[in-house]
């Protein structure tokens, strides 16, 4: 037994969509205070893993542990009350709610929620949201929606933040802002981050460690620097990406 | 003019009852995208429960006014609670097991639940009309003997219906817009998966939606009973279809739409009966629905879809 158990521990997880196998025995772990990234091509199963951790879909076999406690098989809403928050693929902002209401939804089920404190923190991080707090979520730009999705996830003061493709479809300048915010949250607030990205260059530069997923299996892992230096990673994921 | 005023009063009264039922349709549609065809029968069950309670408590118009009001409030609360249990049970038995199944499946079980409720009440309560002596007789006479001698009446039961409905609608709008339960319901309506990712118990929220719809239907049931003084096991069908029409007319999924739609259907029906022919009042109501849907497929207050992705 190692002395420091990981905050998130995924062991041999298999997930099916109907009869199709999406994850074929995934093992990975995220230690407290780390930024860990998972990179891979479209359709490799990255988002499926993210959602399987949250219990939707449920893993067919294998276990997921959060802070030493098994959460496999729990209903999604119970998992999400355990200090885990997700900013999902496609952002999933509530389009007909105001920015403020979207944020409050993020803190709705958090125990001992200090809503004002959380609001203060996310407005510091993304001042744009403060300006737009009364606007409907559906009318925000893509970048603002992404900021809102992350901010909403932060409202419950989670220990683990799951981030699915925060850079998707955004201008480089916005991507930089968002990645800076993630670094700030990790260093300043000690937030543990598990980041799924196609933008492998930025993700690996930001992360302490990374995993590479191909066809529902982890094929490589290492520190961000190690993976960035590997030729096969460069060839597969970084061509033209380092701009 | 007096005649018009009288029709207006009658129309608003009828529209209030439709509006209360329509909210149940529109909320359920909003949150799980299905038409709960058993909702009209939940209204009918609510009406029967009110009647049973009134008879059981021995409530008659001869009670002192204060006691009468208190007794009716008691009936209302118990009837709302019991009807809610019915609404919850229907959701639990007929709809929840089919969640994630193909879209038509819960629609078919809804029709089944509707038939089952009707037959249950028919068998257990008998098929004959159930009359109730007027509990709130009398009212105001607004105009007396103009040239054509028409008298405009505003009865106490009409006042009761309009006041209760208005209060409930205000309360309900606040509940949906300002409370955390209302926020959870709107979140589930807009993106159920995301709501669960924020820790919202989606199944529970859906159950509560059915419970709230049923409670409002129970209020409508009691008001209907007090107003018309006669019910049978079949009243849920036509009232249900009308309220459903009201919900679609106002824009299904929209709460103010359901209220507006209910009011309009009530007014159209009443005015048509008053000025043209009673026989064709349903035709008039449904024709207006058809015309509105041709030009505004989303209904009067349907959601404008302004969403950037």
From TrEMBL, chain B:
**What GO terms are given for molecular function?**
L-isoleucine transmembrane transporter activity; L-leucine transmembrane transporter activity; L-phenylalanine transmembrane transporter activity; L-valine transmembrane transporter activity
Localization annotation: Cell membrane
Q: Does the keyword Cytoplasm apply?
A: no
Keyword entries, A-Z: Amino-acid transport, Cell inner membrane, Cell membrane, Membrane, Transmembrane, Transmembrane helix, Transport
Is Glycoprotein included in the keywords of this UniProt record? no
Q: Which residues cross the membrane?
A: 12-35, 42-61, 67-90, 102-121, 156-176, 206-227, 283-301
Task: Give membrane topology per the record.
Answer: Multi-pass membrane protein
Q: Which GO terms describe its cellular component?
A: plasma membrane
- Similarity remark: Belongs to the binding-protein-dependent transport system permease family. LivHM subfamily.
What PANTHER family is this protein classified in?
A: BRANCHED-CHAIN AMINO ACID TRANSPORT SYSTEM PERMEASE PROTEIN LIVH, HIGH-AFFINITY BRANCHED-CHAIN AMINO ACID TRANSPORT SYSTEM PERMEASE PROTEIN LIVH
Name of the protein in question: Branched-chain amino acid ABC transporter permease LivH
- The scientific name of the source species is Roseibium limicola
Instruction: Recall the taxonomic lineage recorded for the source organism.
Output: Bacteria, Pseudomonadati, Pseudomonadota, Alphaproteobacteria, Hyphomicrobiales
